[in-house]
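== Folding task for one protein ==

=== Format: two labelled lines per protein ===

==== Paired sequence and structure tokens ====
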Amino acid sequence: MSWWRDAVCYEVYPRAFADSDGDGTGDLAGAAACLGHIAELGADAVWITPFYPSPLADGGYDIADHTGVAADLGSPGDFDRLTARAHELGLRLIVDLVPNHTSSRHPWFREALAAGPGSAARERYLFRAGRGPSGALPPNDWQSAFGGPAWTRVADGEWYCHLHAPEQPDLNWRDPGVRSAFTGILRHWLDRGVDGFRVDVAHALFKAEGLPDAGPGQHGDPRRNHLMPYYDQEELHPLYREWRALLDSHPAPPGAVPPHERVMVAESAVFDPDRLARYIRPDEMHQAFNFAFLEAAWDPAELRRVIDASLSGPGGGPVTWLLSSHDAVRPVTRLGSAARARAAALLMLALPGSAYLYQGEELGLPQAAVPDDRVRDPLWERSGHTDRGRDGSRVPLPWSGDRAPYGFTTAAPEHTWLPQPDDWARYTVAAQERDPGSTLALYRAALRLRRAHPAPDPAAPPHWYSAAGDPYLAFRRGALGCVVNLGTRSLSRAALGVPGRAVLASGPLDGDALPPDTALWLLDTPAPRHPPDVPPGPPRI
């Protein structure tokens, strides 16, 4: 079976993971030194977000050189050592591909500004004349996902499109030169040994011919994303088939983790299951993030609906689950409590398919409060200081110690990339390794059990024991059963009807009852003669 079908992948945001040189910013050498933490957790792969040269107008997703390495994060040699270390540990390495836009400081965009209207250089981007007698109005009504118009006017009067920040001009994917250049970018990183690509905003590369108005309600309801003229266009799919053929045919590098099969992961914010399934057809992407699950409320009916819809899509492939990312509010804060976040983790990891974990999720980190004068996210300014953005989930990891910077760096706390809270000592890796009831211990135990008892078919829906209207979810996939109490009262295990031997719980049980906001794993196998390789403590049964 292909490794990616039920893989657990750990996301690293390099500037906030580990700092090796004491400048307060995480880097590639720091990430390489701490990959053992990810391997010990039980992950199969690492996804590292952009490490490319960038002015950091959008946390590194405004790229000035798609084949380079940012000087503050290291060198090409550091990247090669990171790749080699990942492979030594049995981890595959996935990198970000950001094809929708470049930085406004990219050589292409500087050339386009200098070349003027009608030039070949401008054809690489979406430059248009404005509306109105003097062209003083934007070419259409498109809005940026970061707030405000998706158009900025340049000195000669033309406008350029940017679905994100003005510092991120969108590329014109109907230009043959753009298409050819990105084929070269893919080959560059494949030659350096990467095992796959997470494709940023994979639903947005092509815009509808003629750039028609989008109308009201843009970015307000993600369930309507596929209806926007700048999202989910048909021309995406032939492109992704080309890329898939390239990945399938490119030779495996020395030291690659067998069996070798490179993957593409779509960050496609398309919530309609039928539309999303098109991205993971057998000759296109391997995986597509399931944002409907990430954004589902802590409600049994809604979660059951999302799970069923995800697993019954026409694509027939495994689902890619996630609870958090560098773009999302951390589960502890979003769901309302650490207990719910722990229970949600066991729910996700019990479902058939693959799963993505974001750094710090395994530590139970809450969303951090970043002071106004340290906020970096462009959402803060673009929203008129009403949306604090995503910085709260990008605060550096706490590794050890009882005060900031908690082993992340040797720099003074005020010099870290983003400031860490004063009360994070209890969340450090070192503190949690000493606590058998910690969130870290829970994740390690869950990933070991998951690997020991895989789903027979990662694409097959589970067998449900719970019914519509029940205040809990209960299901089995293969030997592993899972029950999650989303109600307000404890539930008798005997009344739940899920057979098996209890092996792991997200929190303490109430005698023979499952308390609210608690998940339980059960194995439909005899008890082992020797204790399983799972850390002892309160979460374990």
